[in-house]
Design brief:
The protein has 418 residues and is an alpha/beta fold. It folds into two domains: 5-141 and 302-356, 3-Layer(aba) Sandwich (Rossmann fold), CATH 3.40.50.450; 156-300, Rossmann fold (3-Layer(aba) Sandwich), CATH 3.40.50. 35% of the residues lie in helices and 17% in strands. It has a five-stranded mixed sheet, with helices on both faces. It has a four-stranded parallel sheet with strand order 7-8-6-11, sandwiched between helices. A two-stranded antiparallel sheet has the order 9-10. It is elongated and about 75 Å long. The two termini are 34 Å apart.
Length: 418
């Protein structure tokens, strides 16, 4: 009897360490070549499975797969494509099973956030009813850090490190010029419904820097914000503001909502930083600068957290080990054992506990005024940003990032319209 092959795909917004999880999956499969066959990767995520564009990772060298550990973004391509419910579009799920059957795929590793956890769960259920069981394992990934159960999501810790360091350096700049120039610097960070990334900006307060944080979890109060900002500028001469893209008003509307929707049906957001900057200008007349971290925060492999890289790889590795142990419809997790020293281990949870569940900031992580973080939040964040895992650099001074061949396996089925 031939060995079952594996399918791996990357989903949603990529991170600086998602390739480390891919490395963990592929290397672990190769080390268990007597129990698991080839690893196919979806070109552009789950779309690659639907269109039968399967990247044959066996054509990549061990050295290039190892180099994924230090390469940002999604090496195989990702996508923002949410499969509808089984009731709405059963044909897509049946197509996945048809492709898996055609290529003798018995293991499905889906590396993504909440939507991909939901897809993974549905595939595990449908494959049983279609008579072709597939072990579906979800590998957590999201810079927003909003998946439940796991202590942290790979990708977040490196973003947190990037935002904390960038906010610190920019604040030093503002401080030096505040007497005659900029008095307020506003940094917009990712986080539609959860303020974890903005919270990382609060760590700069430990350097004596005045900082205000705007979280999605706390209704925006214009007068409270302006009053707190003026008090800090009066005292320090300047202030840094870190604002989540999902900061919202008391009625639930986003400060930066444009009135349009993205591919997932989520509200399309503009830039919240210029919105806040305009408030500052109108209320106080301060000179300001604003910036949007955008892709920079999630692509910054040059300053990735060593903790993040290690955990991303461990989750990819453990997903294969769990599949080989017969596990199905689960997600490996990071379980925190202690803060100082920071100790953690790999656990797991049923996908039913993860799919479509969002984890926001605990209220005891947010200061009483709603504009900062507590010591409990600091205790959570600092271990995650520990250590550096710098990429190798070439003689020109540029990082050695790998670009895979990404050669496709031969198709066995007809075309499929998305």
């Amino acid at each position: 009897m031939s060995l079952k092959n594996a399918f791996y795909a990357q989903s949603g917004g990529v991170t600086s360490v998602i390739n480390a999880s891919a490395c963990g999956v592929i290397e672990t499969c190769r080390k268990n070549a007597d129990r698991i066959g080839n690893v196919f990767a979806g070109r552009n995520g789950i779309i690659g499975a639907l269109t039968e564009e399967l990247i044959d990772t066996s054509r990549e060298s061990d050295a290039d797969i190892a180099a994924l550990m230090k390469t940002p973004s999604g090496a195989f391509g990702s996508c923002r494509f949410k499969l509808k419910s089984l009731e709405e579009n059963r044909r897509e799920y049946e197509r996945l099973i048809e492709v898996f059957k055609a290529h003798d795929i018995g293991y499905f590793f889906y590396n993504g956030g909440g939507d991909s956890a939901d897809t993974c769960y549905k595939v595990s259920q449908l494959s049983e009813t279609m008579g072709f069981p597939v072990q579906a394992i979800h590998i957590p990934k999201t810079v927003d850090n909003d998946l439940p159960v796991t202590d942290v999501c790979p990708g977040f810790s490196s973003v947190a490190k990037y935002i904390a360091v960038s906010a610190l350096e920019a604040s030093f700049d503002v401080s030096s010029m505040a007497r005659t120039s900029t008095k307020v610097f506003i940094l917009e960070v990712m986080g539609r419904h959860a303020g974890w990334i903005a919270a990382a900006g609060g760590l700069i307060e430990d350097y004596g820097i005045p900082v205000l944080l705007l979280f999605p979890e706390v209704d925006f109060d214009h007068d409270r914000f302006i009053g707190a900002l003026k008090a800090r500028v009066d005292e320090f001469g300047y202030c840094t503001v870190v604002v989540s893209e999902g900061a919202r008003n008391a009625d639930g509307s986003f400060l930066a909502e444009q009135g349009t929707r993205d591919a997932f049906g989520h509200a399309q957001l503009g830039g919240v930083a210029p919105v806040v900057a305009n408030m500052v200008k109108q209320a106080l007349g301060y000179k300001f600068h604003w910036a949007v971290a955008d892709y920079l925060q999630r692509a910054a492999r040059h300053i990735a957290s060593a903790t993040d890289v290690e955990q991303a790889y461990a989750l990819g590795k453990s997903s294969v080990e769990m599949a080989l142990a017969g596990k199905n419809a689960i997600m490996p997790t990071i379980d925190r054992l202690s803060n100082n020293p920071y100790r953690w281990e790999i656990g797991s949870t049923d996908l039913a506990n993860v799919a479509n569940v969002e984890k926001t900031m605990p209220l005891d992580f947010i200061s009483a005024d709603g504009l900062g973080i507590t010591d409990k939040c600091r205790d959570y964040l600092y271990p995650l940003i520990q250590g550096e895992a710098y990429p190798d650099y070439d003689e020109r001074g540029m990082p050695r990032y790998v670009v895979l061949k990404n050669e496709l396996a031969d198709k066995k089925l007809g075309d499929f319209e998305l």
